[in-house]
Amino acid sequence: xxxxxxxxxxxxxxxxxxxxxxxxxxxxxxxxxxxxxxxxxxxxxxxxxxxxxxxxxxxxxxxxxxxxxxxxxxxxxxxxxxxxxxxxxxxxxxxxxxxx
Length: 100
Hints:
Structural class: mainly alpha
Helix content: 55-70%
Oligomer: single chain
Low-confidence stretches: none
């Protein structure tokens, strides 16, 4: 049977990476194009890691996969990057008076 590690706190390397990403977002504050580029990059990285690294190391038997899924649910659920719907942006614009 394959061994499934219990998720733990992020490594120091991941914590530093998160800090750098937050710093980049703060530096781009007010620049919608740069913030959108950052969000697109994060989404691309998420998809790439999920498709190319994560899936390659998933357990190959039912017991280990079940154990992993239980651990994922117990420790915060599946990582997901939600996308705003264009309708939400348009609705927000309708609620905001024109500044012209």
